[in-house]
Amino acid sequence: MTHEDPATATAPAVVAPPPVLVVEHDAEIGCPLVGQLGADGYRARLAGSAEHARALAVSDPPAVVVLGELRPRRAALKLLAEIRSGGHGAWRADLPAIVCGAPAQEPDLLRAFDAGADDFLAHPPRYLELRARLRALLRRAPARSAHRLAVGTLRIDLDACAVRVRERPVRLARLEYELLGQLARDPHRVCSKGELLHAVWGHPAPITTRTLDTHASRLRRKLRAAGGERWVVNVRGVGYRLI
């Protein structure tokens, strides 16, 4: 019988906890939910408004969204409709969504499912029931590659090194593609020129060069020619952001 040397044993793969976005204007309801989800191993974040939810969805795309109550009334359903349309470049249209509303108001329940809800719970949700519904929903959700990025009508497959705009393929040079990938990972954030030169070209320190500006200009033209929006924005004196 052989014994595996602990020093050379292969460590088990670490599975990242699924990110959950809780959207709820009442912090007295939302904060405890986020805390309980965190204690159960989820990476949960709380948004108190639709605008805040969009920002969080861009910086850390959720695996599932829990929509509670927002102001004004039915703002949560408007946000769900926005998600299903893939609006604002922040959402993927097939994002699993649980809506929490008033079960006594049957029209609200019907509106939630008409808007694209995957599940419905009474508001405020009982935590153990919410957790069970989340687990079931995540099991049913199709696995998605972490190597695919979507920003509005722009699609980037990092494994295949493929870029599409409005489903049209866009041919990019290698460095243009790498620059786009850097910007698309956090499309609203301004990346400094030094950061981009280091990440794409490997320059260890800021240097005086027009290389980045030239590639950014070419990338912008190619995306626009394919029917793209106003992408690759030059923030004067700082760097670039995608949108």
Describe what this molecule looks like in 3D:
With 243 residues, the protein is of the alpha/beta class. The chain is 38% helix and 19% strand. The strands form 3 sheets. The protein has a 5-stranded parallel sheet with strand order 2-1-3-4-5, with helices on both faces. Helix 6 (174-184) crosses helix 7 (193-201) and helix 6 crosses helix 8 (211-225). The longest helix is centred in the last third of the chain and has 15 residues, at 211-225.
The main β sheet shows up as:
5 strands, parallel
SS-based structural class? alpha/beta
Number of helices: 8
Our measurement of the CA-to-CA distance between the termini, rounded to an integer number of angstroms, reads 60 Å
Summarize the structure.
The protein is α/β, with parallel strands linked by helices and 243 residues long.
Chart the SSEs and their pairings.
Layout: E1 19-23, H1 27-39, E2 43-47, H2 50-59, E3 64-67, H3 75-84, E4 97-101, H4 106-115, E5 119-122, H5 127-140, E6 148-151, E7 154-157, E8 162-165, E9 168-169, H6 174-184, E10 191-192, H7 193-201, H8 211-225, E11 233-235, E12 239-241
Parallel strand pairs: 1-2, 1-3, 3-4, 4-5
Antiparallel strand pairs: 6-7, 7-8, 8-9, 10-12, 11-12
Helix pairs in contact: 6-7, 6-8
